Amino acid sequence: MGDCKGKCVNEGGINCQSIDYNSQSKDCHISEARSDSGDYTEPCYLDGWQYTELLIDADKRWSKIKYACIRSNNYKTFNGILTMGDCKGKCVNEGGINCQSIDYNSQSKDCHISEARSDSGDYTEPCYLDGWQYTELLINADKRWSKIKYACIRSNNYKTFNGILTMGDCKGKCVNEGGINCQSIDYNSQSKDCHISEARSDSGDYTEPCYLDGWQYTELLIDAGK
Length: 226
Known about the structure:
Elements: H1 2-11, E1 18-22, E2 27-31, E3 49-53, E4 69-70, E5 74-78, H2 84-94, E6 101-105, E7 110-114, E8 123-124, E9 132-136, E10 152-153, E11 157-161, H3 167-177, E12 184-188, E13 193-197, E14 206-207, E15 215-219
Antiparallel strand pairs: 1-2, 1-3, 4-8, 5-7, 6-7, 6-9, 10-14, 11-13, 12-13, 12-15
């Protein structure tokens, strides 16, 4: 089962949400669905299969709470949520990879989970409706990264930043502004350009060494011990 978990987090990327494992056949199935899916069955409809899913820590760091909101991007809506903290917990434990931000109303006790963030065109500050507060996940830039190589990925830039002074700053841009699309970066220390990509070194567009001079590459290493 441990090897199956490792396959999930290291090869499944953002699609690694759960696994089915059969210890007799040694088969390992990686899925982006979770136990809240309509296709989840307990016990399994086939013999010999075991199931586990990633548990996402509700204590992840969140941005400063603002009187703001995101219009019309609700992935899930919950009623009767007593606190902002409970709303955060709903987001990370039930939203999965779609948990990027929350809108919370302390008067109505409504909690909205969204995959959009404050860089969305639908973000309004202050919120266009009264009583709503907003916060979003801050993703730690100190996640483990692969060894830096003189390599790059061609034509897969999710976002491009100029004037980025260091490789570390480029990593920070990736995890804090790239969200689930932050899988790798290309960085040029001479031009100070930083490219964020959702592609990884298993992409057909990955070149080592890079087809252009001066570019270095690294990608997020996903911890198999989750």
